[in-house]
Amino acid sequence: MDFRILGPLEVWDGGGEVSLGGPKPRALLAGLLLHSNEVVPTDRLIDELWGEDSPEDAAAALRVNVSRLRKALPQEVLTTRSPGYVLRVEPDELDLHRFERLVDEARSLLARGLAANASERLHEALALWRGPALADFMYESFAQPAIARLEEIRLAAVELRIEADLTLGRHDELVGELEGLVTEHPLRERLRMCLMKALYRSGRQAEALDAYQDARRALVDGLGIDPSPSLQDLERAILRQDPALEVEATAPARVRELAERSILVATTNEKRVDALLTLAGALVRYPPRVLIMARLVSDAADLRSTSAWLEERRSALEAQGIVARAASFTSTAPGEELARLATELDVELLLADAPDGLMAQGAPDEQLTAVLEEAPCDVALLVPRNASPEGPVLVPFGGADHDWAAVELGAWFARTTGAPLLLAGAAAVPEQGKRDASRLLSHGALAVQRVLGISAEPLLTPPGEEGMLEASRDAGLLVVGLSTRWHREGLGQARLRLAREAAPPTLLVRRGLRPGGLAPPGVLTRFTWSIRP
User: CB 3.0 to 4.6 Å from 362: which of 70, 427, 483, 496, for a disulfide?
Assistant: First the structure.
């Protein structure tokens, strides 16, 4: 499900918009989404839906609208829990949650000096807005406080994005936008400061000083106060042409690229580390990335030997021309720690071996679930085989979210190693009226050609697990996207069988949050890690 409130209320499921019925079910859903995953009391919902004009039997009327809404949504999304109802929203199913996550990531990146990454995240976050939040409820009293709050966080994100773009030296292109924003929000000093900096850096010092005087008049006339000390300090800095106002020199391209692009390899089983590093070593070569190895141990007594072991591996990678770093520490919750480490280091891919429990049960345990739910980057789990990955890269492709991430990861591995890339889908079944998957495969192949300049060969296999298993027999690497319902169904029967029985090493891929080059234009906010502006 895809719930959208950053604009008119919309719900999408499987590529189509869900009809929610009349105004009352829509208003009920809006109220529940503003408090998603929380119990909203019945009395509050009645007050929001009808206010002082509530019907005589308001509780019964509410139940009718709840019933209508339940018919439009999947089972178990809207449930009854005393003293009211709760709307269950999975991570990233609500556009507001995606927006807030991206802004938080950007704020952290900007604090660490990674302005390009921060700007990218903020542009992505602001692209989620389709107009004023809850635009179809702007005259409803229950929605007005939420609309005001959401507009405030949007403006704060705009200001943060402008600061990131100023850091990147984009002052010339920002002046016009800032002048419009200042006219619309004359009392926001942060926007005034950004406008003054943009004008000054564009060689328009006199206009920057005029902008300060305009700000002072607006604050005195509107609020009866002088500009803040920060705004006054900026005016004085412009008057003395303070060198600190200039854009900092950017780092050399190679240093900047290495600082911003990295892969995290989580080593939990020493017997499988060679297979992990073989894959990671190929992925970090083009475009250049840093390879970061992490080993979490439960016993502090093992920490010293683990660090020495990692250092040996790091030195061996450096000898191969790979920029590598290594870290180990103790942890009682390795899944949460790995997700946190991936976030703090801003890695593009978290590569780990598939736990034995996943292969035995077909469902992630608590620690792996923490990684899959919380890591913002792509996650790839390796099921190793005795053979090294030689031969074509095979990607079963059905066009779902995680399938696109699998295609992208498989394509980068093929691009670096020179291996052929095969995109596999089901052959036609005429007696059942089912056409083959060649049209869908062509979309993936065209995206790979456009972004990477390599060919992806379509491969039609007999429908079912046996056909894909047979196709994988001669492959060097099998890359499989997780089901979009992994948190409820685990790997599922087909993927579990592929992971257990396929001949080549197998990667199970969960897509991340970053925009990528292979995604269809309508869902660019969903994909992944390889393409940067």
Answer: 496
Q: What is the pLDDT of residues 173-204, one digit of tens each?
A: 999 999 999 999 999 999 999 999 999 999 99
Which of helix, strand or coil describes residue 497?
helix
Q: Which of 304, 301, 476, 466 is nearest to 394 (CA)?
A: 476
Angle between helices 465-472 and 492-501 (to 10 degrees): 30
Q: What is the 3-state secondary structure (H, E, C) of 404-463?
A: HHHHHHHHHHHHHHCCCEEEEEECCEHHHCECCCHHHHHHHHHHHHHHHCCCEEEEEECC
What does the alpha-carbon distance between residue 297 and residue 529 come to, in Å, rounded to a whole number?
28
The rounded distance, in Å, linking the Cα atoms of 289 and 295 is: 19
* 58/522 Cα distance (integer angstroms): 41
pLDDT tens-digit series, residues 261-315: 789 999 877 778 888 998 898 888 766 788 999 998 888 888 888 888 888 888 8
Dmax (CA) of the chain:
81
CA pair distance 97, 95, nearest whole angstrom: 5
DSSP symbol at 503: S
Q: Cβ distance 81 to 39 under 8 Å?
A: yes
Structural domains of the chain in order of their starting residue, each with its CATH number:
2-95 (1.10.10.10), 97-131+159-245 (1.25.40.10), 252-355+362-377 (3.40.50.620), 385-533 (3.40.50.620)
Over range 104-108, report the average pLDDT.
84
CA distances from 505 to 353, 378, 413, 464 (A): 11, 18, 13, 20
